[in-house]
Amino acid sequence: MRVRSNNLSPWQQHFIATGPGGSEHYQDAMAQTVAQLAHVFEQADKPYSGLDPVALKQQIEAINLSAAPHSLQQVIQHSAELIAHHSILVQHPACIAHLHTPPMIAGIAAESMIAALNQSMDSWDQASAATYVEQHVVDWLCQTFGYDQHSDGVFTSGGTQSNIMALLMARDWAVDSISQHNVQQQGMPEYSHRLRIVCSDKSHFTVKKAASIMGLGEKAVVCVPTHNNGTIKIDALNQCLNDLKQAELIPFALVGTAGTTDHGAIDDLSALAELAKQHKLWFHVDAAYGGALILSQQNQRLAGIHLADSITVDFHKLWYQPVSCSALLLKHKAHFKYLLHYADYLNREGDYLPNLVDKTISTTRRFDALKVLMTLRTVGKEALGAMIDHLITQTRQVAQLIDEHQNFELLAQPSLSTVLFRYQHPVDAFNRQLRLACLKAGVAVLGETTVNGQAALKLTILNPCLSIENFTNLLTNINEFADSLLQMETC
Ligand SMILES: Cc1ncc(COP(=O)(O)O)c(C=O)c1O
Does 5 score more than 70 pLDDT? Predict the structure, then answer.
């Protein structure tokens, strides 16, 4: 029963209070927010409104943040009309640029619980049930990826953080193994300038970012060439590792990718694991994009992933969760000791209850695991896996449509759910111009990258609800838009 409290102080109306009637304003605000957003989604006929970016910037800058306050009702309405209405709508069939997913409703419902409960995952006394939920989801993930009882994991803000944490632990483990030197306590050893991370030239840029943040410099990352399909050349990798040792350098980590950002390429993880073992390297698999394949019929394409020392999995990609939601899994939970620091006020040594801050570089941390739990319970792992299988099949069909189109050129056979192509035009920059023009007009939000030195367009197909007609329409629209651009050029 709702008990209406009429005499709230001006400050109380901004908070949820425990006890009868304490959530009345909250309920009204949520109901209004949902109604306004539903209106935005239901009225949308483009992935972006088409408002000129300069005009959008001016309208947002015109919001006076120092002005007298408005009612929350007014602010919700204005935010929906200006901000939501001019947002990139990931749900629209023509929003197809990035690994940026339409979120599942279970995840969105979880997100609103996460916000209102505002648990902080660092310590049990800030996240009682949440601590056990995260651990339960992590245990399920470890098992799903073929890890045993020695494994563990932790939720992170994204693939970037997961990759950084993995390489940080890899470095400290390597230095510990080589010279019993404790990087956490003593800083870098004198031979740190010789440490090397090995990955492919299609690995995500966050491998280099991690090296730079870790004080090794981007020069510490050695990129091995790839085949045309984007997978690492195993012979070249073997040669590279031998060359590095010959040059008295110290390779300590090997990064394999399960789903490169552009090609969706999956490295031969078993071969990489074998080389990592031979050369005593920490083997990290960046499965930010392709990790969800573990749920699909094609999970054998990830064969060998259970041999990795660490795995990055991004739920805000092919697991359809609202940003942000990611995890890092470790084969040997003991390696989390490289991140452990005790603070008197937070996580005392020997605490009776678990404090998840022990396993991460974050302190205050979101309760993102709830989204995965609620999605798995609502949608189920079979349906999630079937969506991935469907996307892979559909991506091949879209690639064929492009291949058969007289004005488009397919640049690579798809591996996961991306299609790399270009509009055939003698001027390379035309494709960049085309992408930007489509974005600004709200015709389509397309990806842009470089393939073999050429400007390329990219479709990243994530939405399992699209039909092949959506793609035929999309390609027709892009083609017509390119025609109109060419006509304007000749005028
Ligand atoms: C292969 C790969 N790894 C890592 C990342 C970084 O992940 P995040 O954006 O979640 O930090 C991405 C992002 O697209 C990616 O494609």
Answer: no
